[in-house]
Amino acid sequence: MLKHAGMEALAKNLGLVECERFIALIRREQPFDYTEWRQTLFDDMTTDELYDAVREFREKLKIQEQ
Q: Which range of residues forms the domain containing residue 11?
């Protein structure tokens, strides 16, 4: 159930092609440390850039819900 929900979320937000590319990228990076990846995911972004990205994502979700 969790895998299915994750795949749906990826496909919905990235599209099928980008979803497949993301999965292929993650699988190539062996070994993959999810905790480390999450901790460094936004290291290259300033606080303002992160805030803008979150705001844009929330707006995109609002549009999709309509």
A: 1-32
Count Cβ atoms below 10 Å from residue 15 Cβ, excluding itself.
11
Judge contact between 19 and 10, C-beta under 8 A: yes
Q: Are 19 and 7 in contact (CB under 8 A)?
A: yes
Structure tokens belonging to residue 33: 């440390």
pTM score, two decimals? 0.44
Say whether both 5 and 27 belong to one domain.
Answer: yes
pLDDT, tens digit (0-9, with 9 covering 90-100), for 36-57: 888 888 888 899 998 998 898 8
Q: Kindly give the interhelix angle for 16-28 and 2-14, rounded to the nearest 10 degrees.
A: 120
